[in-house]
Write a structure and sequence with these properties.
28 strands, 582 residues, five-stranded antiparallel β-sheet, nine-stranded parallel β-sheet, 17 helices, alpha/beta, globular, 22% strand, single chain
Length: 582
């Protein structure tokens, strides 16, 4: 494990941040000297800045986090044609834009020359003495310097107050980086999700039905999943850890599988009441049926989002976060929900809003009986606006997520897990140890339309794999990584057999949760059944830690920690997308 060095930055006067604060600059040559890399390796700042591959932590779950090679321009939300989409994935309020010299790295930044790493991380979420704002490292190849930008708009600073803590270290291998990150960020957060087993396994309704779900569909899928052999039942035999059986029933010595009802159960986004026509029996009965079948009942909610004309917004217009002109802050758009009408978000500085959010969680958990809660679109809690009670977004986000996740057991003592999605990565790992760490996947390799409009957080199998590999260092060190679902089906899915196996094995190796979304009653062909069995066999065979190194854009080398197994992953356009072990 590497030696860790730190540097602190303090406010130089009393002031209120009206835009993001630049608190200081790090000189790469100075960092190399402090860590003794110059004398040990002979590297200069020019070597590192100009020739290194740069890894970025990314702002939120869907932000691109893969490596940027010399001469490349980093992907960002600023490229998207649809203006409201840009607020989703870029560091809040930033004035910077990436180019061939400038790379933006929220939270974690590393510069890699082959096996050598110079790593810079923000300790805002680790600091025990102060609540600090999230950080973006602005790395300039031409100057070999790193500016430190804070998302602190609205914060009232006092002269001498701590504004940022930065750590940096060097390492000679992927695993040395991973072990050092674990020493920094492991605060016992994974104990919250131990009941999910060695590897969390689950089914969700989204990637087969999307919002077109109802009570009949959910019950049919539940019964089929309980009664048929699926990739989940096969993997459960491989990953099961009988030391904790999650207080569930009918587990037969295995860790229970999650059964998650996704988007489509609610009346509308922002109105978290049950759609009575689609679910006439209510959700309490469904959760009971899921539990009685031996599964963990799961439910999707996007707590911070709503539309300006939603019932909650019409009843409480003062709850909306507004800009300085009194208009609702745009929280993006989702064409699948309400066309191109902009989403709004809640003003988290208000006690009434927090009480409302708490009541939603209490209802879902203690009235309906769900104990795996997927909380989505959480970036909306970090958008800047004219908060009724002043302050900065990060201060209110911290308070809100602790409230949302405060229930660790149901009223009858059953354990609860929370999956974060679309979360600001730096601020969320303590409260959402289990988190999505990439963009949504897709039943096709590319999403051609969203690629055409230059949306770099598009749902797509290719980009999803890039993110899974890009945040592989985080798994079991900062987060328990959720890479999204795997696919078996042939119906309404253009992925090749190699691509399906690649997605499953990449998720198995570099993540802590495997979800599945196919219709379990519709997997009948010999080809599909054989693929499910092969995935199970291969996941068990390669059930060990691997490093990953991008040798060239979209071509990766894998190596097990003990050095006995190596392999490659090929994502290159026009070539066969597959994983191969030597």
């Amino acid at each position: 494990m590497s030696n860790i060095f730190t540097r602190n930055f303090f406010a130089k006067e009393n002031y209120t941040a009206t835009k993001n604060t630049i608190v200081g600059t790090l000189d790469i040559q100075n960092l190399l000297q402090i860590t003794h890399a110059t004398e040990k390796k002979g590297f200069s700042s020019k070597d590192i800045a100009c020739k290194a591959v740069i890894g970025s932590g990314g702002w939120q779950s869907w932000s691109p986090c893969f490596e940027t090679h010399p001469g490349q321009k980093q992907s960002s939300g600023g490229n998207c044609i649809l203006r409201p989409m840009k607020v989703l994935i870029d560091f809040p309020e930033t004035k910077f834009r990436p180019n061939k010299n400038v790379v933006l790295c929220p939270f974690i930044c590393y510069l890699r020359l082959d096996e050598f790493y110079l790593v810079i991380v923000s300790l805002a979420s680790v600091c025990k003495t102060s609540l600090l704002p999230p950080v973006q490292f602005v790395l300039n190849r031409s100057t070999a310097q790193v500016e430190i930008e804070l998302a602190d708009s609205g914060k009232v600073w006092k002269d001498g107050e701590l504004q940022s803590e930065i750590a940096f270290f060097t390492a000679d291998s992927y695993f040395e980086v991973k072990d050092t990150l674990k020493s920094i960020f492991d605060c016992g957060q994974f104990a919250q999700i131990e009941f999910l087993g060695k590897k969390a396994l689950g089914w969700e309704s989204w990637y087969n039905h999307y919002t077109q779900i109802d009570e009949k569909i959910i019950i049919e899928d539940l019964n089929a999943l309980a009664e048929k052999e699926t990739v989940l039942s096969l993997l459960n035999s491989d990953y099961s850890d009988t030391s904790d059986i999650a207080n569930s029933t009918n587990t037969k010595g295995k860790t229970p599988i999650i059964f998650q009802i996704d988007d489509g159960w609610e009346t509308s986004v922002g109105d978290w009441s049950i759609h009575q026509e689609k679910f006439p029996g209510g959700l309490k009965s469904l959760a009971n049926q899921i539990e009685n079948r031996g599964f963990i009942p799961g439910l999707w909610i996007a707590p911070f989002l709503l539309y300006e004309k939603s019932p909650v917004a019409l009843e409480h217009p003062d709850w909306l976060l507004r800009n300085k002109n009194g208009k609702p802050v745009c929280a993006g758009v989702n064409p699948g929900w309400n066309g191109l009408k902009p989403l709004c978000c809640l003003d988290l500085s208000q006690d009434e809003v927090l009480s409302y959010l708490d009541s939603i969680m209490d209802k879902a958990i203690n009235d309906w009986g769900f104990r795996y809660l997927k909380l989505d679109f959480m970036y909306a809690g970090m958008l800047h606006g004219s908060f009724k009670n002043g302050g900065a977004a990060y201060e209110w986000y911290e308070k809100a997520i602790k409230l949302l996740t405060r229930r660790k057991t149901t009223k009858d003592g059953k354990k609860i897990a929370y999956l974060g999605c679309g979360i600001p990565m730096e601020q969320s790992y303590k409260d959402f140890p289990l988190s999505r760490i990439g963009c949504d996947t897709y039943e096709h390799w590319e999403n051609k339309f969203l690629k055409l409009i230059k949306w770099n957080a598009r749902n797509e199998a290719y980009l999803n794999l890039k993110d899974t590999l890009g945040r592989s260092l985080w798994d079991k060190t900062i987060y328990a990584n959720d890479p999204d679902v795997i696919f078996i089906r042939n119906k309404n899915c253009s992925l090749t057999r190699d691509e399906k196996l690649l997605i499953a094995l990449t998720g198995s190796i570099f993540a802590s949760q495997i979800m599945y979304s196919d219709d379990p009653s519709d997997i009948n062909s010999v080809e599909e059944i054989e693929l499910a069995r092969e995935i199970s066999k291969e996941c068990k065979k390669y059930n060990c830690e691997f490093s990953v190194k991008e040798m060239a854009p979209d071509f990766y080398q894998l190596k097990s920690r003990d050095g006995k197994i190596s392999g490659t992953i090929n994502l290159k356009k026009g070539e066969i997308h597959k994983i191969v072990f030597n």
